[in-house]
Amino acid sequence: MRVPARLLSLTAVTAAAALLTGCFAGTGSTGSGTGERIRLAMMQPPRSGLSPLSDDAFKLSRWSTAETLVKLDARGDARPALATEWRRSGRTWTFAIRKGVTFHDGTEFDAEAVVRSLRAAADASPEPRILDGVELTARADGDRVVVTTATEDPLVPQRLSSPQLSVLAARAYRGKTVNPVGAGTGPFELTKVNGTASAALDRYDDYWGERAKAPGIDVTFVPDGTARAAALRSGEADIVEAVPVSQAALLDEERITEVPMPRTNTLYLNTSGGPFAKAALRAAAREAIDTGSIVAGVYEGRADAAEGLLGPALPWAAELRTDVRRPTATKAKGETITLGTFTDRAELPEVAATLQQQLQQAGFEVRLEIREYANIESDALAGEFDAFLLSRATVLDCGDPAAYLYSDFASDGSFNLSRLADSSVDEALTKAGGTATGAARRKAVVAAEAAVLATDAAIPLLHERVVQGDAERVVGAAHDPRERELVTADTYVR
């Protein structure tokens, strides 16, 4: 039975805070200038040694240490960053490179450096998911970079905004590994990484843009959500990433911010084998699930029940969405399924337990398998589960959901947990990816979403709202729906 957050004993919270005492005392050098270093508690430790070619890239972006050619504005439109302007000619895009930029090791930022980083990403195995289905080449032309794709791609600037395509100094690339320490161009220099425990960054005083207001950042990785919340309560942390819903009620409401996220909790059903290879049983699973009770019970109302894969962070999706014709359900007759999820997001195990009850009431036998994400992802991608519960960002990479839809549901998508291979879905995804930005593209994206939903290969449950904690003395912390920014040059502690 779940205990409401308001009834939780503060003993556990106090104990968790005690475990963190000293963790945020300052693991890096003091940097130059005045002010206090920012103590940051993050949810997930690095999975790939902070390589920008992995999801760790978003940590580098949230710490303002690694930068890209392009950034996105609030609407998802491309704006200058390390590139000052660009133009398109068919399959070719030409980017003018910003002058006066240096890497943190003092070497010059130039077109050759951009080409080196883009080639490293294009040649990586596995390649960054922002490049799923994209064949990209790059060459230097004086102080410009010429990017060419195998087919016309209207989203090249948006793709180049992905933190996985950050530009790093030559020193970062050694064989097959990428080490970002001292190799970025942002207002903070990554100076120290202590495995999966902590990291430190100092202000980079030769930054090409606005000088950072804080002298540095001390990062501690705290997978336990109760401990993260306790760190904010006790004053051990200044900024806390992803406060669990169960802990939010224990915090001062003025210290937390809820942001509707382009993030969907989805139940992916394995269409390649097992019970869910049958569309009728996938439909039975869909009809068995009560998302409203999950939102009210597990998330205490701090989430939005899903009507599609794209949620309120993209309001145009609801405006364009129409009814979807789904398969007819058959009654389950004791089919055994294995449902997997992970512990890194505190609510997911409880959601999985609720799904287990709902599916068993519908006639399925459900086994749960719950591990840390780093220990379960490979099995999920290999199709070892009949169903997998995932909290998935839908516009994380390029500000456009077409890339997420392709990655997760195309026959050759790199993150196809459902192992879906459907020609109608592939056709809709290809059309959405090739449509020019604007109203026509949004319509094509919603049509692709409908094609996926019509297969019941994925059952969207809810759209998360991230709960971020900021201490009273923190000024200017970013509350970014895309999870790209957290500490910026304007963030400091009073």
Key phrases:
494 residues, D-Maltodextrin-Binding Protein, domain 2, Dipeptide-binding Protein, domain 1, Dipeptide-binding Protein, domain 3, eleven-stranded mixed sheet, four-stranded antiparallel sheet, 21 strands, globular, disordered N terminus, ABC transporter substrate-binding protein, SBP_5
Describe it:
This protein is of the alpha+beta class and 494 residues long. 26% of the residues lie in helices and 23% in strands. Strands 1, 10, 11, 12, 13, 14, 15, 16, 17, 18 and 19 form an eleven-stranded mixed sheet that branches. Strands 4-5-7-6 form a four-stranded antiparallel sheet, covered by helices on one side. A two-stranded antiparallel ribbon has the order 2-3. β2 (70-72) and β3 form a beta hairpin. The protein starts with 9 loop residues before the first helix and ends with a strand.
Q: How much β-strand is present in the residues?
A: 15-25%
Quote the average pLDDT.
91
Beta strands, count: 21
Radius of gyration: 23 Å
| CATH class annotation of the largest domain | Alpha Beta
Fraction in helix: 25-40%
Low-confidence regions = 1-19, 29-33
| CATH fourth-tier homologous superfamily of the largest domain | Dipeptide-binding Protein, Domain 3
Structural class computed from helices and strand pairing? alpha+beta
Shape: globular
Largest β sheet strand count, sense and barrel closure: 11 strands, mixed
Q: Tell me which CATH architecture of the largest domain applies here.
A: Roll
Number of domains: 3
CATH topology of the largest domain: Dipeptide-binding Protein, domain 3
N→C terminal distance? 42 Å
Number of helices: 14
Domain Solute-binding protein family: 79-414
Keywords: Signal
Pfam family, one: SBP_bac_5
Protein name: ABC transporter substrate-binding protein
